[in-house]
Amino acid sequence: MSFADLGLEPKLLDAIAAAGYETPTPIQKAAIPPALENRDVLGIAQTGTGKTASFTLPMIQRLGRGRAKARMPRSLVLAPTRELAAQVAENFEKYGANHKLSMALLIGGVSFGDQDAKLTRGVDVLVATPGRLLDHFERGRLLLTGIEVMVVDEADRMLDMGFIPDIERIFKLTPMTRQTLFFSATMPPEIQRITDQFLHNPVRVEVDKPATAADTITQRIVRMPIKDDRTKRAALRELLTHKDVRNGIIFCNRKSTVDVIAKSLQKHGFNARPIHGDLAQAFRTETLNKFRSGEVQFLVASDVAARGLDIPNVSHIFNYDAPIHADDYVHRIGRTGRAGKKGAAMMLVTPADAKFYAAILKTTGADAIEELDFSAFFEEHAAGGGRPRRSNRDKPEDSRPRRQPRKVEERKPEPAKVEASNEAPNVAADRDPPAPRRRRASANTSPKQRESADPVIGMGDHVPDFITRAVAG
Ligand code: AMP
Question: How many domains is the chain built from?
Answer without folding.
Answer: 3
